[in-house]
Amino acid sequence: MNIWAALLAGGALTYLTRLSFIFLFGIIDPPEVLRRALRFVPPAVLSAIVFQELLIRNGAVFLSLGNARLLAGMAAILVGVRTKNSLWVIATGMIILLILNQILPG
Amino acid sequence: MNTAVDGAAPRLHMAREFWAGVRAELPLIVGVFPFGLIYGVVAISSGMPASAAQAMSSIVFAGSAQFASAQLVAGGVPTLVLVMTIFILNLRHALYSASIAPYTKHLSTLWKAGLSYLLTDEAYAVTILNYEREGDNTYRHWFFLGAGLALWTFWQISTAAGIFLGTVIPADWSLDFAAALTFIAMTLPLLRDRASVAAAVAAGVVAVLAYPLPYKLGLVAAAFAGIVTGMLVEGKRR
Questions:
Q1: Which helix (H) or strand (E) holds B132?
Q2: Nearest-CA distance B74 → chain A (Å)
Q3: Residues A35 and A46 placed together within one structural domain of the fold
Q4: Is B187 within 8 Å of B200 (Cβ atoms)?
Q5: What is the SS3 assignment for B24?
Q6: Domain edges within chain B
Q7: Shortest Cα distance from A66 to chain B (angstroms)?
Q8: Which long-range contacts (CB under 8 A, 24 or more apart) does A23-30 make?
Q9: Cβ B183–A20 below 8 Å, yes or no?
Q10: Are residues A65 and A84 both part of a single domain?
Q11: What is the pLDDT of residues A36-72, one digit of tens each?
């Protein structure tokens, strides 16, 4: 294995992926269906990451009252819906997680 | 906020947007910093030279792909497998690129080239929210630049700290959870209507069910499930 070759090639491909539509948009106008679709990219991707963070532990689904991250995350979601304040969401979630980590086994 | 034309000099608008981008990125940086540290430690223990481990944080600049690479380097896979793994893990950035593209259309090629380099999960998350707010978009690429550069800087520093200190932040600090919480804080304001809620729930469920798929394809499948669901719900209500 040539680590530097892999690094440069992998980096170049990653860069082209990031550049792809940003570069092409000036040349090709996107069809209406793509415009409509793009509105849903942020809620879909962010929510997907959140669900995985809260529900997956060590590569498996962890749906249980013993899942401290799930409980802390749900409390944070409730606080977010009520307060609409990011800092409260993060503070609530971290504090509840730290408390639950002391209480819950393993 | 968003007073489009208030007579202030463009330079002032640029600076304001830039620092707003830096500030918006800071909570995410708190979550990302431990990942950078741990990546540095893992990369070194996998046998990667320190120079390559550090260079990867600027050349590839994508956490999950870097962690996977460190594992693969330890396993001694062929160069091509390593390259393809990095590529597939980072395919999701094409979605971000497509999502950001309408807002960067008016920029010069140099701006597009530079901002594309900074288009990470974390920079995208705050930047798209800023672009989607009501108001004047003229200077919002400076927000993107501020968010992207802030993340880039701390990613390099945390990697270096991981490499050179060789220590791990105690796991019971659970600092990485700050990243998940930040994603929650960013997702909630996006759930403005029934269609976007449907998109988020569908994507979340598929992300969990499809998690076992290799190369983080579960995340790509989830994104598509969410997009299709959102469009279907929106279409029905028209």
A1: helix B121-132
A2: 11
A3: no
A4: yes
A5: helix
A6: 10-169, 191-238
A7: 16
A8: A23/B109, A23/B112, A23/B113, A23/B116, A24/B101, A25/B101, A25/B102, A25/B104, A25/B105, A26/B105, A26/B112, A30/B98, A30/B101, A30/B102
A9: no
A10: yes
A11: 887 888 889 889 989 988 999 888 899 999 999 999 9
Q: Which of A25, A49, A62 to mutate to test the interface with B (most CBs of B within 10 A)?
A: A49
Q: Please, what's the largest Cα pairwise distance for chain B?
A: 60
pLDDT 10s digits, B9-47: 888 999 999 999 999 999 889 878 877 887 888 788 788
Give me the DSSP letters along A19-57.
HHHHHHTTTSPPPHHHHHHHTTHHHHHHHHHHHHHHHEE
- Do A51 and A101 share a domain, yes or no? yes
β-bridge mates for residue A60, sequence order: A57
Which pairing describes strands A60-61 and A56-57: parallel, antiparallel, or unpaired? antiparallel
DSSP states of B92-103 as a string?
A: HHHHHHHHHHHH
Q: Are residues A45 and A28 in the same domain?
A: no
B187 vs A47: CB contact, 8 Å cut-off?
yes
Q: Per-residue pLDDT tens for A72-99? A: 999 999 999 999 887 889 889 989 999 9
How far, in Å, CA of A91 to CA of B87, rounded? 35
| A25, A51: one domain | no
ipTM: 0.83
Position B134 scores a pLDDT of 86
Q: Are residues A56 and A46 in the same domain?
A: yes
What's the number of domains chain A is made of? 2
Residues A3 and A33 in one domain: yes
Dihedral through CA B196, CA B201, CA B202, CA B206, nearest 10?
A: 140
Q: Which of A1, A34, A41 sits opposite B223 (nearest CB)?
A: A41
Q: Write out the residue range of the structural domain in which residue A64 sits.
A: 41-106
